[in-house]
C-alpha cells in the first residue's frame, strides 16, 4: 500500500486532485486527513491548517498516481509514504 499526502492549492476543489477515471481504474481512496485517521492511519504529520487529502492506493499504481498528481492543477505538492 502507498499513501500520498497531497496538499491542495488554496481555493482549488479537492475533488479534482484525481480524475474519476483514475480513481475508478486504480481503486484509489481519497480521504480527508480526519477520515484517514479514523481508518487507523497514524503517523502523518499535522497538516498545520493546510487543505490536505490522503490518497491510498495499491503499490502497483504508484507511478500512475504520481504522474496524475504531478499533472493536477489542484495539487501544490505531495509526499509519498510506502507502507509495509
Helical residues, percent: 25-40%
State the name of the first-level CATH class. Alpha Beta
Q: What about the largest sheet?
A: 4 strands, antiparallel
- SSE-based structural type: alpha+beta
- Counting DSSP E segments of at least 2 residues, the number of strands comes to 4
> What is the residue-mean pLDDT, rounded to a whole number?
93
Textual characterization of the structure:
With 84 residues, this protein is an alpha+beta fold. It has a single domain, classed as Alpha-Beta Plaits. It is built from 3 helices and 4 strands. It has a 4-stranded antiparallel beta sheet. The radius of gyration is 12 Å and the shape is globular. The termini are close together. The mean pLDDT is 93.
Task: Sum this structure up briefly.
This protein has 3 helices and 4 strands; from the N terminus they run E-H-E-H-E-H-E.
Topology:
Elements: E1 2-8, H1 20-26, E2 29-32, H2 33-38, E3 52-57, H3 62-71, E4 75-82
Antiparallel strand pairs: 1-3, 1-4, 2-3
Features:
3 helices; 4 strands; single chain; 4-stranded antiparallel beta sheet; Alpha-Beta Plaits; 84 residues; alpha+beta
